[in-house]
Amino acid sequence: MTDSSIPKFFEKDRNERLEIVKKFSDLSKEDLDLLENSLGGISFDVADKMIENAIGTFSLPLGIATNFRINEKDYLLPMVIEEPSVVAAASKGAKIARSHGGFTAKVHESFSIGQIQVVDVDVKSAIPKINQSSKEILDLANSKSKTLPKLGKGAKEVNCREISTDSGPMLIVELLIDTGDAMGANVTNTMCEAVAPLVEKITGGNVLLRILSNYATRRIVTASAIFDKEQLGGEKIVENIILAYQFAANDEYRAVTHNKGIMNGTIAVANATGQDSRAIEAAANAYAAKNGRYSSLTKWTKDENGNLVGKIELPLAVGIVGGIINVHPIAKLCIKILNVKSANELACIMAAAGLAQNLSALRALASEGIQKGHMKLHARNLASAAGAKSEQVDKIVQKMVQENNISLNRAKELLNQI
Ligand code: MEV
After folding, report:
1. What is the Å distance from ligand 1's center to 260 Cα?
2. Does the Cβ of 370 fall within 6 Å of ligand 1?
3. Is 374 a catalytic residue?
4. How far is Cα 114 from Cα 94, in angstroms, rounded to an integer?
5. Relative to the CA of 258, which ligand 1 atom is closest?
6. Is 260 annotated as catalytic?
7. Given 100, 129, 260, 311, which residue is catalytic?
8. What is the per-residue pLDDT across 147-162, written as a single tens digit (0 to 9) for each?
């Protein structure tokens, strides 16, 4: 089974959905057992080793977005998110993109940036000295990784920048490190710390900070797709989506919400696959302001046939080995569900998820508004919160939607009447 467009996936029960994912991603019986019985994946013992002062674990829903086709390969996307509508919206956006071939995505470079702050230094004379010693610095950095240099990866470049501050000029030495399929925060920090004494010796200055930059501008991903005008609902809706985009492109207050919607897609996949979501969001938001003004991470135009064309560009520092993936069995399983073979492939998927999400949000906002769909899903939460059993939920939701009275109180009243 290789086709991710699965009709009425949302109407199937859990076992049917699991069976489809099992076939699609070639999951084993043990994988299914894990999904069904592990209550979210990690034991207290594991949690206790992951963070300090642990007192328990905390579960979130794991859903599957269907219809994704990216660079001519089909994917079922695992998404971990607490917000209703997101999985449905991603699936819908991906469905519309499919009829014109799905998403085309690309990672332009994959260098992690490590920063070494040098103070009490004559910056002008230090820069050429660093440049002359770059091989020595890179060799020392690479001696700290057993695996990366063997793979032809590791520290590749040393760059210098001068910054002026209220405390005087500073030299920032940056290591560009190809961290392969790892997000690479640890190896980047290790390399920066390792070369710091050498940098002090070369420059005669004092090194203060030695740390990864989360502003991953050397790990830029782009994704694009064509969305058919008829499937979107006609020419008018295409025009309205472009107008909605222009609002975000030219107004920070709207752009933050617009980009938040993109993050709904990107971060849900990040959560499922055990990525550092704080790093991703911090970088995405800085990138949104790269031209001096916070703006949209996506661009929406139309092509010569009047179809909508969407593009997204953002930094994504992600990994499929190391970190939480080593300890969280569900994160590991989500990588298996995606069947990704490299960190770059995962980054392409996360960018496409963001674009699909943005399309669906703009389409709803520029037509009937998001509340109709949203409230229906919210009603499901309220019905369960009121104590309804799964077989009672649909009835209560239907009634609340019909009455246009979606509230916990009404859900409780209706439950009592059943
Ligand atoms: C809600 O989580 C996300 C939206 O607000 C995004 C947007 O406004 O574009 C619907």
Report:
1. 6
2. yes
3. yes
4. 36
5. 9
6. yes
7. 260
8. 999 999 999 999 999 9
Do 205 and 131 form a contact (C-beta atoms < 8 A)?
Answer: no
Assess contact for 369 and 377: CB atoms under 8 A: no
User: 83, 109, 162, 252: which is the annotated catalytic residue?
Assistant: 83
Residue of 12, 299, 374, 395 marked active site: 374
- Answer yes or no: are the C-beta atoms of 188 and 177 closer than 8 Å: yes
The amino acid at residue 160 is C
> What is 88-149 written as a DSSP string?
HHHHHHHHHHHTTT-BEEEE---EEEEEEEEESS-HHHHHHHHHHTHHHHHHHHHTT-SSTG
Contacts of 69 (CB under 8 A, 6+ apart): 4, 75, 94, 97, 98, 101, 102, 103
Better-predicted residue by pLDDT, 172 or 401: 172
> What pLDDT score was predicted for residue 37?
86
- Total-model pTM: 0.92
Bridge partners of 112, per DSSP, are 177
pLDDT in tens, 93-120: 999 999 999 999 999 999 999 999 999 9
Q: pLDDT of 260-275, one tens digit each?
A: 999 999 999 999 999 9
135 is catalytic: no
β partners of residue 78:
64
- CA 125 remoteness from chain centre: 41
- Helix 329-338, helix 14-25: angle, nearest 10: 60
Ligand 1 centroid – CA 258 distance (Å): 6
Q: How far is the CA of 357 from the centre of ligand 1 (A)?
A: 9
